[in-house]
Structures are given as structure tokens and as C-alpha cells.
Amino acid sequence: MYDRFKRKINYLRVSVTDRCNLRCTYCMPEKGVDLIKHEDILSFEDIVKVVKTGVELGIDKVRLTGGEPLIRRSIIDLVNMISEIDGIKDLAMTTNGVFLDRYAVPLAKAGLHRVNISLDTLDPEKYKKITRVGIIDSVFNGIEAAKKAGLIPIKINCVIKESPSEPDAQEVAAFCKKNNLQVRFIKEMDLETGVFSRVIGGDGGYCKICNRLRLTANGKIKPCLFSDLEFDVRELGIEKAFRQAIDMKPKSGSENRVNKFSNIGG
Ligand code: SF4
Asked: Which of 59, 91, 101, 122 has the fewest Cβ atoms within 10 angstroms?
């Protein structure tokens, strides 16, 4: 599938829930956000139907996101169902890592290829301050478990204010080098005002070559993170929603006043 700007669209990011066990200051307010009603959240069967149609249209890379994907009940079953779809070359997950030590082995057995784990500092107090509730040791245990389970390469998503030369970012980079992890620096973004930049060490935020679509937990296909555009698979039908999303994919991002990071999975 190619869009109007001759970009090959082969990557679908699937938000499986808008719930999260953490309250990161740059993602959601302390009290949390208004959650999607349970009955509006796509079932596993629905998600698989969307992914299958996507694969028929050229998707070969799928990433599971949230909120926090590991708090969705029976997530291992969903990974298994998606990994059985012919045509998926890369099945990855973005997680805050808190529950990864418990799930790494079953995720790998279910067919997950690799993980991205969020880590913005090595300082336990700062980590607690950023996440409001998190205990950093659970993430370190998750990283070790992912290594042992073979969910590699492991990429570390490190959110920065301005530059990778910030002290915490430097420490995370050194930690990644020492532990054979790949670090990616993500500058804080603002959906409403359209403030975003390219991911340092990755290809996110690079509109010129953007290859991605997003599926929200309540069944909207979004052609762009920084756009209000969304196409409802329940209203339009899956294939029509995909085709309209691709046809309408903007040349570059602007503002998104419809979503929150927690319900679109970044
Ligand atoms: S802002 Fe939109 S077009 Fe640009 S990289 Fe992100 S999703 Fe792609």
C-alpha cells in the first residue's frame, strides 16, 4: 500500500488498552484520564480481523501498545493469535516493563519477537517522581527477563526534555551500552499543540518516510499521530477504514485534539 505521497505503509501500531498501571507526568494527569468504556474496547477477535485485513493490504509489521499492553487480561492469547497470521514479519511490543519479568517467557513462546521498554532515568527516586507510582527495580528485572526470553533486540525508549546530553539520558545511554540494549531518545511531545520531533535512534516522527497507521483500543484507524483524522472500523467496515486512512494520510503531522497519549500508544 502506498499513500498519496508515495510512502509505503506497512506498519500498524495496535493499542490494546488505554489503561495503565503508571501515571507518567508527560503522558497523563495524576488522576488519570477518562477511560474508554469496556464495551467499546475491541475484542481480540476484532483486533485479529483488523490485523488480517491490514496484512492483506500490505501490513507486515505490527506493534502492540497501550496504555500498558501487559495489563490487558490474557494478552498472551492475543499475541499468539496475531503471531499465527501469515505475512507478519515483525511482531513487537512497547511496554513500561513493570510486569515483563512475569510475562517475558510466555510472550516469547506465544510468538512475540521483541520489545521496547520505557526507561527515562536510572535513579529510583526520579523514576518514582516521573511515573508517580513506579518502582524501578521491576523494570530492571523486566529487562533481564526479556533478555533471557530472547525478546531481542531490546530497545529502550528514553523520554528527554530537550537533548540526549541531559544527565539522565547520558546515564541511560551508558546503561544500554553496557547491557547490549539499543537506546532511543524521544523528546517530550504535545498532541494538542502539535509539538513533536524525530525519534533519535529510531524512525518515528520522520513524516517524509512515515510508514505507519495506528489502531486505537476502541477501533479507530488513525493515519497520523498528530492529526484529528480517524476512521471507525465498526462504522465503515475494516477495509474501507484502512483505505480511507491511507488515502487521507497527511503529508506531515499537525495537531491532535482528539486523542491522549494513553489511548493511542504514542
Ligand atoms: S507525525 Fe504523522 S506523518 Fe509524521 S511521522 Fe508521526 S504519524 Fe507519521
From this structure: 122
Looking at residue 260, its pLDDT comes to 83
Which of 186, 222, 225, 251 to probe ligand 1 with, by most ligand atoms within 8 A of CB? 225
Put residue 237 in one of left, alpha, beta given phi > 0 → left and psi -120 to 50 → alpha: left
Give the contacts of 212 (CB within 8 A, at least 6 positions apart).
9, 11, 12, 13
Q: Which helix (H) or strand (E) holds 14?
A: strand 11-15
Q: List, in sequence order, every beta strand (DSSP E) within 101-259.
A: 114-118, 155-160, 182-187, 212-215, 220-222, 231-232
In whole angstroms, what is the distance from residue 28 CA to residue 32 CA? 6
C-alpha cell at 162: 530537550
Q: Are 222 and 230 in contact (CB under 8 A)?
A: yes
The ligand 1 atom at the shortest distance from the C-alpha of residue 226 is 1
* pLDDT under 70: residue ranges of the chain: none
The per-residue pLDDT for range 51-68, each reduced to its tens digit, is: 999 999 999 999 999 999
Q: List pLDDT tens digits, range 65-115.
A: 999 999 999 999 999 999 999 999 999 999 999 999 999 999 999 999 999
Where does ligand 1 bind, in terms of residues with CB under 6 Å? Answer: 205-207, 210, 212, 224-226, 252-253
Superfamily in which the 11-264 domain is placed by CATH? Aldolase class I (3.20.20.70)
pLDDT value of position 132? 93
Instruction: Pick from 226, 227, 249, 251 the residue to mutate for probing ligand 1's pocket: most ligand atoms within 8 Å of its CB.
Output: 226
